[in-house]
Amino acid sequence: MPAAEKFEADGKTINKVKSNAMIEKYNTPEKVAAGLAELRETWDKLLGILNVDTPDDKVNRMVNIWNQYQCMVTFNLSRSASYFESGIGRGMGFRDSNQDVLGFVHQIPDRARERIIDIASTQFPDGGCYHQYQPLTKKGNADIGGDFSDDPLWLILSVSAYIKETGDWSILDEMVPYDNDMSVAQPMLEHLKVSFYHIVNNLGPHGLPLAMRADWNDCINLSCYSDTPGESFQTYTNPKFKAEGGYSKVAESAFVGALFTYAGPNYVQILNHLGKTDEAAKAQAEIDKMKKVMMDSAWDGDWFLRAYDAEGKKMGSKECEEGQIFIEPQGFAIMSDIDAEASKKTLKAIDERLNTQYGLVLNNPAFTKYYIQYGEISTYPGGYKENAGIFTHNNAWIICAAAYAGEGDQAFKYYSEIAPAFTEDTSDIHKTEPYVYGQMIGGKDAGADIGKQGDNFGQGKNSWLTGTAAWNMVAISQYILGIAADFDGLKIDPSIPHEWDGMKATRQFRGATYDITVKNPNHVCKGVKSMTVDGKAVDGNVIPVMDGGKHTVEVVLG
Fold this sequence. Notes:
The chain has helices spanning about 15-25, 30-45, 55-75, 95-105, 110-120, 150-165, 190-200, 240-245, 255-275, 275-295, 330-335, 340-355, 390-405, 410-420, 425-430, 470-480, and strands spanning about 50-55, 90-95, 130-135, 140, 175-180, 180-185, 250-255, 305-310, 315, 325, 355, 360, 365, 390, 440, 460-465, 485, 490, 500-510, 510-520, 530-535, 535, 540-545, 550-555. The protein is of the alpha+beta class. A 6-stranded mixed β-sheet has the order 1-19-20-24-21-22. Strands 2-3-4 form a 3-stranded antiparallel β-sheet. Strands 7-8-9 form a 3-stranded antiparallel β-sheet. Strand 17 (about 485) and strand 18 (about 490) form a beta hairpin. The longest helix is centred in the first third of the chain and has 21 residues, at about 55-75.
């Protein structure tokens, strides 16, 4: 409400026009009943876009109701209205909000489109961006600033997800400002280009992306070197690195390298679709180069390194005393097909070194002392938050990776370890709501003396507003159940537990409705043997886009 309208004529009495209108709307039992019926109809419509029937009732409950509901909540609020975070002051995250789109875009694509444009409007001409922005003003949060190395890549993924869901390529022509300045606006496609090349143009000594102030893990601060208690790891930069431009030109992120090889091919596909084959080939060459760098400089023998610190030393290596293996780069490296043999070894190492009965810990072993070269991550007690906690957000990346690799049993094991519906039997330990994801679960060290299992192992933390919701929606619906929007149609590629006889699903997609039946007579985890649409055989496993109507799809695994 404009300031001039906030008070009545006396200048003291609050203007209650809007509140009175709301009271009037629901001031009788009949109006309340009608409102509830309308609300039910709205949710039936939203949740009817994807509905599944699997052999596991807990999966059905999560996919059909609660995970989609939480995706709506996180899309609306991001992390900006949380009991656990810093309240509305932090605004909405560039990285966070792009990822929220991934689990939400099928519900209300028009709102996803609007959000993507808002996010991209806080980008800088060089492809960097404000790490956070205020949803009311839609302006970047200058207090936090930018130089978070992974941020630009998430825009490529969210725009790609939107196009895959809707087929609306016109978003690429939308004129989008840099730093909310329309005088320097460029088409969205140009924003994707500068996002891609922001990585290419900021590489370190090994050819890996510079870590900058932080990557996805805001608590790995390789340019901070803070020795002052109470100093903010999020805003403080060591004077040495500030003089070099704001961050170390030596510290590198293997995670961003892996994410680049995962997100980048979406940009290449977009360019090829638009007939920009020369640009596509140039971008693909950069992806191929990064894959080689990952194997040459970030492969530790059984898993991928986490980073190189500002002294050029390995982080997340078996050579390290603590924090020898990290979860973050592993999943995207597997899904990018960097190296087939490396993928097998990585999945084995994840299972042996990171998995617990309550989920995958972020790193192992936990840090037991402060490492000034690593920053905030080593300030947390072992088993909590980023220091060997079970960070359920990036558990989803491993679920996706295992499913992608054809290991449906392993993927489902990891899914069921953290999915809220599966925590009902351990509610005395888990404690948080058995229907929504939290940010983390206490790791094996939580609440323990060093070297012993903690009393808070398995205890849920920070529920509701977390990127876990979107990514686990992606993991279960697109990678395990295998129903994924693609640029050219609806892809069906399940990676399920071998014991399942099959599953059914209904998916609304680009104006048509598909009733999908998956049969698994040979009890495999993955591999589409045949697919028919309305009784006619289809080559491959992508349902072509139909002009409306209802269609029957039958998929046989084998």
